[in-house]
Every structure is written in structure tokens, then in C-alpha cells.
Design brief:
Layout lengths: L7 E5 L4 H12 L3 E6 L2 H13 L3 E6 L5 H15 L4 E4 L13 H26 L6 E6 L3 H4 L5 H8 L1 H12 L4 E8 L7 H5 L7 H10 L9 H12 L10 E4 L7
Parallel strand pairs: 1-2, 1-4, 2-3, 4-5, 5-6, 6-7
Helix pairs in contact: 1-2, 1-10, 3-4, 4-6
Length: 256
């Protein structure tokens, strides 16, 4: 399929894992992809994999918590491409376990999981408006946004802010022909997965991983490509009448 032929997409946090898979999927369907990541080497690596597969992409070294850097990024996209059709923001960190956290840890988690989402959308909106009614925003939250995490309340708080934000954003952006949706992945096999288990000191990571998989009705963790397929659908014209929605992608874990 070439659902994004002639369109421009920006994937923020595309250096690895789900973000990389999403950038690769959008490029495979014809988009020119801005591969945005604070790690320049990882952004370049993702861009290389897209080019090797015959796709079109360019790397952008941007810290998503830096508002000025985001503003510059979307100004460049406007100048060089004239419109942005797809914005996907994958940025997030697990955060510390429990309630005994420092103010510095609080600020860091708010900056990455909430500030980056707000300002990424706010700074991109003007160039998304130029997509002739085809503008799409997708954000990545977590199943912890809908069921709560007994291990990391701060993570649930920050990710839990995204579904109501997207509902409001969908209403705000609708008159401009821009849609907004949020996905809530469950357990996904990415480089960051182990960090969710190691928040608890002394935990047996492999035992915790196995126990988590046993609780998933479909019997496995998601692959990054599973998440990329959902984002690709939501960003495409196949989802032209879908906005303000929270899509849980968890193999059935939260419906039990």
C-alpha cells in the first residue's frame, strides 16, 4: 500500500523500538519521514534502515522537551515541505517506582511524558493545518493510563493525562481538518521493556517478564510492528472519521 504517497510524516522518538518501527512503516507506505530523536546516532540508524529499504527519510536531532528546538523543527518542515500530514509522538520514560521520589525525578517525568506531548502538538499544529484536511496526530500513552500501575503511580499519572488531552485536542483541531488519537500499548518487546521491571530493586527480570506474558490472552508480548500497524491506520485516510479516541493495543490484557 502507498497510503502516504506524497505526504510528510514526523515521528518524534524514532531512534529505536516502537518509534523506529512506526517510522519504517510510514516510509514503507510512501511517506517522507522526519526521524526525530535526541540521540543523533540512533536517528541516523533508523534513517539508514529506511533508505536501505527504498524509503525516504531524514534524521533530525531534537530533544522533545526543548520547546525552542521543537519550534525550529516544525518551522523547517514548513519551509522545506510546505505541510505536515502525520505527527506521531512516541517519547516517554518509565519513571521511578513507588511514591518516594525526588522533585528532580518528578520534573524529569513531567517534562518527558507530558511537556513533550503538549508542545510537540502545539508547535506542529500550524503546519498540520496545511495538510488539506489530511492532518493526523497520534500519541503513545500506555495501558497504565487506563488501568493504573500499582508500581509506578507517577507513570500512570503522566500517561493518564494523554487520553483526556487527545479528546480536547481532537475538538480543538477538528475545524482545521486535523485529527488526534492516542494509543495505549501493553507489553512490547523493545529495548526499554526491561527498565519497567528493574524499577523494583532485586527483581528477577526474566521471571517478571514471563509472568507478565502469562497474563496476556493472546499469549505474547507485542512486537513493535504490531504497534506500527495501528499508528499507520490511524494516520491514514482509512481512519478519516476517527478522532479523539483512545486505542488500547495490549493483546486483550485489560479486558479481563
Amino acid at each position: 500500500m502507498n497510503r502516504f504517497e506524497g505526504r510528510t510524516a514526523a515521528v518524534v522518538g524514532a531512534g529505536s523500538g516502537m518509534g523506529r518501527a512506526i517510522a519504517q512503516r510510514l516510509a514503507a507506505e510512501g511517506a517522507h519521514v522526519l526521524v526525530v530523536d535526541r540521540d543523533a546516532a540512533l536517528a541516523a540508524e533508523t534513517t539508514s534502515t529506511i533508505a536501505a529499504a527504498g524509503g525516504s527519510a531524514e534524521a533530525e536531532n531534537v530533544d522533545a522537551t526543548d520547546v525552542a528546538a521543537l519550534r525550529d523543527l516544525f518551522a523547517r518542515i514548513d519551509k522545506e515541505h510546505g505541510a505536515l500530514h502525520v505527527l506521531h509522538n512516541q517519547v516517554g520514560i518509565p519513571g521511578p517506582a513507588g511514591m518516594d521520589i525526588t522533585e528532580q525525578e518528578w520534573d524529569a517525568n513531567i517534562a518527558v511524558n507530558m511537556k513533550s506531548m503538549w508542545y510537540g502538538c502545539a508547535e506542529a499544529l500550524d503546519v498540520l493545518k496545511k495538510a488539506d484536511g489530511h492532518g493526523s496526530i497520534t500519541l503513545t500513552a500506555s495501558t497504565s493510563a487506563v488501568i493504573g500501575s500499582p508500581y509506578a503511580p507517577l507513570y500512570s499519572m503522566t500517561k493518564g493525562s494523554l487520553p483526556p488531552f487527545v479528546r480536547a485536542l481532537a475538538l480543538y483541531a477538528a475545524p482545521f481538518g486535523v485529527r488526534a488519537n492516542v494509543i495505549c500499548p501493553g507489553m512490547v518487546e523493545t529495548p526499554m521493556l526491561s527498565s519497567f521491571f528493574t524499577r523494583t530493586p532485586g527483581v528477577d527480570v526474566e521471571a517478571a517478564r514471563k509472568k507478565s506474558v502469562e497474563g496476556i490472552p493472546l499469549g505474547r508480548a507485542a512486537r513493535p510492528e504490531d504497534i506500527a500497524g495501528v499508528v499507520s491506520f490511524l494516520a491514514s485516510d482509512d481512519a478519516a472519521y476517527v478522532t479523539g479516541q483512545t486505542i488500547v493495543v495490549d493483546g486483550g490484557a485489560t479486558v479481563q
